[in-house]
Specification:
The chain has 149 residues and is an alpha+beta fold. Helices cover 50% and strands 17% of the residues. β1 and β2 form a beta hairpin.
C-alpha cells in the first residue's frame, strides 16, 4: 500500500525537484516500469495533486523505455513536500529549501461570496492593490466586480 512514508523513500532514491522559476518547482519521479508510478499518481490524486506521465525512448540502455511522473502546480508541490518532509532522509535539505522558497499559494476563491465584500471596499474608497492585499485575491477578481458594478 502506498503511503507518504513509501513515497518519501521512493523520492529519496528516484525523485528530483527542480526550479521552473524563482519561486516555483517541479517534482518528478523516473522509473523503468509504469505500475509504481501509476500507484503514486493515484495516491497523490487523492490529495488533489494532479500529475502527468511521460514516456521516453532510450537508446543504448538496458530498458527500451523509461517513464516519468511529473507535477509542478505550486499548491501540489507544496502539499507533496509537506507530506514527505517527516520521512525524507537523503533529500531532506532540498525539500526544506523548496518549502522555504515556494510562495504562499492562494486558495481558489468563490467569486460570488467575495463580490459583496469587494464592492463595499471599493465603495469605501480602497484601491485595487489594497483590496488584493486585504482579501488575498487577484486583480482579475477585482476587475470582474468593477465591470459588474
Amino acid at each position: 500500500m502506498i503511503s507518504w512514508e513509501y513515497i518519501a523513500g521512493f523520492f529519496d532514491g528516484e525523485g528530483t525537484i527542480g526550479h521552473t522559476s524563482r519561486y516555483a518547482y517541479k517534482v518528478s519521479f523516473s522509473q523503468s516500469t509504469m505500475p509504481v508510478l501509476e500507484a503514486i499518481k493515484e495516491f497523490l490524486g487523492g490529495y488533489s495533486i494532479y500529475t502527468w506521465c511521460a514516456t521516453y525512448k532510450n537508446k543504448n540502455r538496458k530498458y527500451n523505455e523509461s517513464y516519468q511522473l511529473q507535477f509542478s502546480a505550486s499548491s501540489g508541490v507544496k502539499l507533496f513536500l509537506e507530506g514527505i518532509l517527516p520521512y525524507t532522509i537523503v533529500k531532506r535539505m532540498e525539500v526544506l529549501e523548496a518549502l522555504n522558497t515556494i510562495k504562499d499559494v492562494r486558495p481558489r476563491v468563490d467569486y460570488d461570496k467575495l463580490k459583496p465584500a469587494i464592492k463595499s471596499l471599493l465603495d469605501a474608497g480602497l484601491n485595487g492593490k489594497e483590496i488584493m492585499r486585504l482579501l488575498r485575491v487577484g486583480r482579475n477578481t477585482i476587475n470582474k466586480v468593477k465591470k459588474n458594478v
